[in-house]
Please model this.
Amino acid sequence: MPVSRRAIVRSCLLAAALHAGFAAAATPAQLAEFFRAVQLDNAGAVQELVGKTVNANEVNPIGGEPALVIAVREGSMRVFDALLAHPGTDLEASAMNGNTALMMAAYKRNKRAAVALLDKGAKVNRAGWTPLHYAAASGDADIAALLIARQARLDAASPRESGAYTPLMMAAREGQLAVVRLLLEKGARAGLTNTEGLTAARIAERGGHTAIAEAISAVSQ
Model:
């Protein structure tokens, strides 16, 4: 029996959708299996499910994170590589709290993941919290330098409801001297204030980080 042109087109579209990661809605059991595989770094199971049974960008009902963010958070690097290679994976898929995979890589000090994501085209700059904020808070000067080299905004402000902190303020608050020095060297503005009217130096003082406060004040003068 001859196949109609419409049926062929429909079949091709379905195949393309599945390949890109837009699988039909998964059952709760299938989702649980998928996210368990992500957490356990079971790349084989993830490859069997993603794009066929589970959408590559599905958000885990428990915790509200997409698979790529979970893989970075858990250090599931085999799964991370599999998801990164999958054409349907959205690098900017975010958790309910706004975290992206690159932000998580910066926070977890996972340079390999950060480099891979950037090479794939992950966004360095975004509204509100940025990967550079997370690298500053975690104290990873290498990742911070990498992000700055990719044109990260030095003075990006976090949302006003969270204080309008710049990366320099975050590094100062968390006592991350190496990142403070890097940001100052690259031109971060030490005189900016948060919603409380505090500069990075004052934030460092309040946290008991005297050396950092002095380093920032020396640049401000």
